[in-house]
Amino acid sequence: xxxEVSPKEIPSHKRLGMPLNAYMLHNLAxxxxxxxxxxxxxxxxxxxxxxxxxxxxxGDFARVADDESRHFGWCQQRLVELGFSYGxxxxxxxxxxxCEKSSDDVSARLAVIPLVQxxxxxxxxxxxxxKLVGFGDHRTSEIVAKIAEEEVAHVAVGVFWFLLVxxxxxxxxxxxxxxxxxxxxxxxxxxxxxxxxxxxxxxREWYDSRxxxx
Length: 214
What we know:
Blueprint: E1 4-5, H1 13-16, H2 20-45, H3 50-53, H4 55-81, E2 91-92, H5 94-101, H6 106-135, H7 138-169, H8 173-183, H9 194-200, H10 209-212
Parallel strand pairs: 1-2
Helix pairs in contact: 2-4, 2-6, 4-7, 5-6, 6-7, 7-9
């Protein structure tokens, strides 16, 4: 069983005696496993709105869960190849804290998880790939690059359904997104991977600081 702590309490790789590549890969494995649970939580928690959302909503997030499970499997397999296993170090509880924040509102769930938390993966993915290349671990860098590539579609799913829910509820998507972030005290952090976010369909006015004060 893995020990979960706040992000600030995660020990450094030097303190843990882990090589940097295994340390970074373990952190990614934790994110991917949490993403599996988050996708299934979205399916189950909001199933009471099946008539309003339609079966396609639940099918999309079930497919996201399947993809994230595959990603976790890749990470776990590579950790074993490196002589480690998931659970060998503590992991943060940030994603589940964000999940709990958005447990009562489907539009908030879509904004907080796919459009903020998963979108951060689009920003971080290329940087992680470069760090692994610099470390000399090309095998792990290729795995991370493939995961980052597939995450674009997951964020796109969130964008599609957020727009649809806003349309059904008569809300303006940009204003609704900003309102949700303020209400749930969710912070947007750069630097942003604009090209990946554009590919996923997130309008820049939703997250770029030049627009957020409007």
